[in-house]
């Protein structure tokens, strides 16, 4: 555990090097909620009030999930830069195993995502109500699993792309699919009207599961597509990409 903790500490130091940039990002996310969501709430009120109530309330859980996704994904950019600059040669000289390095990178990406997401989730609680302790633990556990999976996905992409441009292109494609084919911004009924294939993708999308889980706890009167299968999808997503990232990262470290 000592090697893993050191790796996590290293990544958190890098994370805090951009503290004012992080403050700006969090401010931008909150602006999305307090400006965009309120504007859409006014525009869409006649059509959405009967289905999801206030769009502001509906979007608040989704905002916390998108913030988690974006921040946990940042670890991939750093690892892609390290690969291009061959920093892994230095990492191999550290007194820790390749497995410790790989697990430390995946874990630190997830923990950084949870830390960044905290003020967004707190804002969600302030406006929608605080859950009880068991519900809070469930929310945090599911979001942590999601953060680890996102970190693993980011690292998997980072080690399989040879340039920053390719990584950014792949990241954009992943953002587009997972963000907009999910229930982060709109309910599942809207996606179902666009086609069965998109609806199926939205149902198994881990971002949908996390967003709907928070809504089912904080907004029980609003119809939700959340089910226990959603948690299974998140666990599967986390397990697949955690092991994929660890294996791929260790392979990169073995290159001379």
Describe the structure.
By secondary structure, the protein is mainly α. The protein has one domain. It has 12 helices and no strands. The longest helix has 34 residues, at 19-52. The chain is globular and about 60 Å long. The mean pLDDT is 84.
Short overview:
Helices cover 83% and strands 0% of the residues. The chain is built from 12 helices and no strands.
The oligomeric state is: single chain
- How many domains? The number is 1
Q: Mean pLDDT score, rounded?
A: 84
Characterize the overall form. Answer: globular
Q: Which segments are poorly predicted (pLDDT under 50) over 5 or more consecutive residues?
A: none
User: Main sheet?
Assistant: none
Sheet/helix structural class: mainly alpha
Gyration radius, in Å: 19 Å
Based on the model shown, name its key terms.
about 260 residues, mainly alpha, about 85% helix, about 0% strand, globular
SSE blueprint and pairings:
Layout (H helix, E strand, L loop, with lengths): L1 H15 L2 H34 L2 H18 L1 H11 L3 H4 L6 H31 L4 H28 L3 H17 L7 H5 L3 H9 L1 H13 L9 H27 L2
Helix pairs in contact: 1-6, 2-3, 3-6, 3-7, 3-11, 4-7, 6-7, 6-12, 7-11, 7-12, 11-12
């Amino acid at each position: 555990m000592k090697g893993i903790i050191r790796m996590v500490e290293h990544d958190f130091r890098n994370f805090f090097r951009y503290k004012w940039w992080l403050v700006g990002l969090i401010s931008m996310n909150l602006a999305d909620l307090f400006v965009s969501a309120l504007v859409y709430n006014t525009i869409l009120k006649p059509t959405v009030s009967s289905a999801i109530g206030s769009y502001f309330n509906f979007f608040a859980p989704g905002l916390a999930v998108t913030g988690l996704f974006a921040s946990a994904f940042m670890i991939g950019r750093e690892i892609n830069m390290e690969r291009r600059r061959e920093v892994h040669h230095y990492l191999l000289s550290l007194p820790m195993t390749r497995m410790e390095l790989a697990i430390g990178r995946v874990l630190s990406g997830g923990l950084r995502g949870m830390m960044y997401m905290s003020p967004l989730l707190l804002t969600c609680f302030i406006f929608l109500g605080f859950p009880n302790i068991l519900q809070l633990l469930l929310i945090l556990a599911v979001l942590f699993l999601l953060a680890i999976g996102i970190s693993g996905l980011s690292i998997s992409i980072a080690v399989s792309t040879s340039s920053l441009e390719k990584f950014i292109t792949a990241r954009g494609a992943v953002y587009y699919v997972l963000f907009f084919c999910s229930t982060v911004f709109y309910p599942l009924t809207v996606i179902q009207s666009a086609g069965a294939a998109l609806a199926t993708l939205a149902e198994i999308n881990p971002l949908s599961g996390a967003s709907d889980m928070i809504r089912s706890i904080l907004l029980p009167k609003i119809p939700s597509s959340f089910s226990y299968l959603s948690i299974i999808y998140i666990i599967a997503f986390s397990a697949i990409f955690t092991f994929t990232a660890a294996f791929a990262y260790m392979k990169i470290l073995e290159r001379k």
